[in-house]
Design brief:
Blueprint: H1 25-36, H2 41-45, E1 51-54, E2 70-83, E3 90-97, E4 100-106, H3 110-116, E5 122-132, E6 135-139, E7 142-145, E8 157-160, H4 165-169, H5 177-187, H6 199-205, H7 210-218, H8 223-255, H9 266-275, H10 282-295, E9 302-307, H11 313-326, E10 337-341, H12 345-358, E11 366-369, H13 375-387, E12 392-395, E13 409-415, H14 422-427, E14 437-442, H15 448-454, E15 459-463, E16 474-479, H16 483-495, E17 499-503, H17 511-528, E18 536-539, H18 545-557, E19 562-565, E20 578-583, H19 591-598, E21 609-614, H20 620-631, H21 635-646, H22 671-687, H23 697-706, H24 709-715
Parallel strand pairs: 4-6, 9-14, 9-15, 10-12, 10-13, 11-12, 13-14, 16-21, 17-19, 17-20, 18-19, 20-21
Antiparallel strand pairs: 1-8, 2-3, 2-5, 3-4, 5-6, 5-7
The protein binds adenosine-5'-diphosphate and magnesium ion.
The site of adenosine-5'-diphosphate has 19 residues, from α11.
Length: 716
């Protein structure tokens, strides 16, 4: 985490370490870093309150009902007690005003709270209301001694920040946090936050000054001022994200030199005419043309290829790599090498198997390099890379290690983009005189506008068509009480010769529990499907690579009919005979992930099914998600919905990009503003990409100060 924030060497007060601020110090400073990622003054300045409360508006306890979400009450503390033991231990305090009694509850930070509370004193309390056994309560409230000297009748909008238990225990409650931002704003002045938008934009949108915006977002004089502040700062976020991406793209398009692939030769033609096992879909042909066009311009290609699961991206990658091999580097007369990088060992191996089978009768040398390649093999592979005898290297992260030196790398494919960051992409091109062309493939469809925002530095292609003859997958949601019927259904399908996946969720935070669930699940599956009539493979992240591989291979070969696994099989695995996907605890998965998993079936000619199993009681949200999945097979539609439901921050494939994790803006709700920012940014990029015009100086200066450090370190 520390590495992410490199403090600028320029003596800019905004980049001062947060512990230097009055009221912070080393202890709290440490916590702010660990708990909230606040390292510098700037981070704190951009740590915005999630709401403001009018300090003079105090609710009566008697008037609190389930329709009120947050409340502020003032009252006398009558009684404090410790209830329960060990994990259920909690501190309960009772606050009374002249209309009723409110319970305040602490599950954590109990000793800290105890010290804070004195029976008989008056307190001002703020928090989210809960109703428990007919009583109103606030757990972990924001609490301070009550004094009514502030209430001179004037409205006073007090900022409330989200805090954490550990920070609260150091006195930094959501409310006390305001003292820090106040101290910070006192230390800063308008000069520290110079204007960063061109005048024309400020005029056009009537934005308030930058300094005013920062003051008002924390301590607004009126609600209207707050709205103005948010509007301006949101725009800034969106605008600069677009400017940064636009500049990267424009710089690349103007200056990046790349290998010129000026022909399609024997390898491509022979493969296309004699070994391609099917006719390409129109979408595949179109994308291939786009890649052809890019790679012969003498500039480096950087292309994002999106295509739903099973849309046939691999073959496009292979054909592109053959074009690379068909093109000869003048200086040494050898065809260009390619590399294909996959996020997991299983997937790398699968690609390797597919591709070696396809080109087995052609003079193409393909090798597999992963973390578990043994030394002798590894040496041979490295040698083949270096002397140029290797045509295509397939592998995991291992392929971007220092030791891998290509003689003439011309083309790099990164499968399943979201597992690789920008920095890893960049590492590929330090290895050569010119950078290779880059094709980034992702199976997590994201809506086009979102893709362009998230990956604005890349050009964009899409395969929006599935190969012919695919039968749509029937997706159903079944509750736990239907499990026996589901199992009978599976037996019937296995009898017909089909294979089945049963997938258990793996959530990192509770990995141990999930692992136990998986084992329990495995035992249960075994009891439903006893040997020797049925054979089961199990694959999960804790297995050594070899074991994972053997188990996977047994399933691929058809030696086992059932594959019990965690989400390690999520990406890319291809077993056409598998026609049933059972997803356990489906309510725990996000939509895109469910869609990804579903994509493992429906790859052969047989009718396929996806069964989403859940507990008998699930939340409405989860029910909604599962309904969407049952209604459509189209990954792009699923993605649109996912975006609506969860917002962009959580969409798979964008998390890593960091560029969508705006502090204020939300690209779904703020679409109109996003468009405005995008247009304004592309205007600048088109007319003044080097930011030479005087009117664009504010932008240039701003980028200079930021040095893009935060952005770049966050995405890499
Ligand atoms: P993904 O886009 O998910 O990576 P794959 O490249 O693994 O998809 O392709 C899925 C399956 O579809 C593979 O078995 C592949 O051989 C097959 N396939 C790809 N393109 C076509 C096509 N044009 N016609 C028929 N089958 C195809
Ligand atoms: Mg794939």
């Amino acid at each position: 985490m520390c590495k992410q924030f490199i403090i600028s060497s320029t003596a800019n007060i905004l980049f001062s370490p947060v512990e230097y601020l009055k009221g912070v110090g080393p202890l709290r400073g440490d916590l702010l870093k660990k708990e909230l990622g606040i390292f510098t003054f700037k981070d704190l300045l951009e740590y915005y309150p999630f709401r403001h409360i009018d300090k003079t508006k105090i609710d009566k306890i008697g008037s609190l009902g389930p329709d009120i979400e947050y409340a502020q009450v003032a009252g006398r503390l009558t009684h404090v007690e410790l209830i329960g033991e060990k994990r259920s231990k909690r501190l309960v305090a009772y606050l009374q005003d002249d209309t009723g009694e409110l319970e305040l509850v602490w599950f954590q930070g109990i000793s800290w709270a105890e010290k804070l509370l004195t029976i008989g004193h008056h307190y001002l309390v703020f928090g989210k209301l809960g109703f428990f056994m007919g009583k109103v309560q606030i757990s972990h409230p924001d609490i301070e001694l009550y004094s009514d000297d502030k209430s001179d009748g004037k409205k006073f909008l007090e900022p409330i920040y989200s805090s954490t238990e550990k920070l609260k225990a150091r006195g930094l409650t959501g409310r006390a946090f305001a003292r820090l931002s106040f101290a910070l704003l006192q230390q800063l002045s308008a000069n520290d936050l110079p204007e960063n938008l061109p005048n024309a934009i400020i005029k056009k949108y009537r934005f308030i000054a930058r300094w005013d915006a920062f003051c008002s977002i924390h301590f607004p004089a009126t609600e209207q001022m707050y709205t103005h502040a948010v509007r301006r700062l949101k725009f800034e976020e969106l605008y600069f994200a677009q400017i940064r991406l636009g500049l990267i793209r424009s710089t690349r398009q103007r200056f990046s030199k790349g290998w010129e692939f000026n022909k399609v030769g024997d390898l491509f033609n022979t493969f296309y005419n004699s070994y391609l096992p099917f006719e390409l879909t129109n979408a595949q042909k179109r994308v291939l043309k786009e890649i052809r066009k890019d790679t012969r311009t003498g500039k480096q290609m950087n292309r994002l290829l999106q295509g739903d699961v099973g849309s046939g991206k691999t073959i496009v990658a292979l054909l592109s790599m053959l074009i690379a091999a068909d093109n000869i580097r003048q200086s040494d007369g050898e065809g260009f090498q390619s590399v294909l990088m996959a996020p997991t060992e299983i997937l790398a191996r699968q690609h390797y198997n597919t591709i070696t089978a396809l080109v087995k009768d052609m003079p193409v040398c393909v090798k597999l390099l992963t973390g578990s390649s043994v030394n002798k093999q590894r040496k041979e592979i490295l040698k083949a890379c270096e002397d140029g005898s290797l045509t295509i290297l397939i592998g995991t992260h291992a392929v971007i290690e220092e030791k891998v030196i290509f003689k003439n790398l011309g083309f790099a494919v990164i499968d399943e983009q979201h597992k690789f960051g920008v920095a890893q992409r960049a590492r590929l091109w330090n290895k050569n005189t010119l950078p290779p062309h880059i094709l980034v493939m992702t199976a997590t469809p994201i809506p086009r506008t979102l893709a362009l925002t998230a990956y604005g530095d890349l050009d964009y292609s899409v395969i929006d068509e599935l190969p012919p003859g695919r039968q749509p997958i029937d997706t159903v949601h079944r509750f736990e009480n239907k499990r026996p019927m589901v199992m009978d259904f599976i037996k019937a399908e296995i009898k017909k010769g089909r294979q089945v996946y049963i997938v258990y969720p793996l959530i990192e935070e509770s990995a141990k529990m999930d692992y136990e669930n998986l084992m329990k699940g495995f035992e249960e599956v075994k009891s439903f499907f006893p040997e020797p009539k049925y054979w089961i493979s199990m694959v999960h992240g804790r297995q050594p690579a070899i074991q994972k591989d053997t188990n996977m291979q047994r399933f691929v070969n058809g030696d086992t009919q059932i594959m019990v696994s965690t989400t390690v099989i999520e990406v890319g695995v291809n077993v056409p005979n598998a026609s049933i996907m059972v997803i356990e605890s489906a309510e725990k998965f996000g939509l895109s992930q469910l869609h990804q998993l579903r994509g493992r079936v429906g790859r052969g000619s047989e009718k396929s099914f996806c069964i989403l199993l859940t507990g008998n009681k699930i939340s409405n949200d989860a029910r909604e998600r599962l309904k969407i999945l049952c209604a459509t097979n189209d990954g792009f539609k699923v993605a649109e919905k996912d975006l609506e439901i969860r917002g962009p921050g959580d969409i798979e494939g964008t998390k890593q990009s960091g560029l969508l994790n705006f502090k204020l803006a939300n690209i779904v709700n703020d679409r109109i503003m996003l468009d405005a920012a995008k247009n304004a940014a592309s205007h600048i990029i088109d007319t003044d990409p080097d930011l030479l015009l005087a009117e664009n100086l504010p932008i240039k200066n701003f980028l200079q100060v930021q040095k893009d450090k935060t952005v770049w370190s966050k995405i890499s």
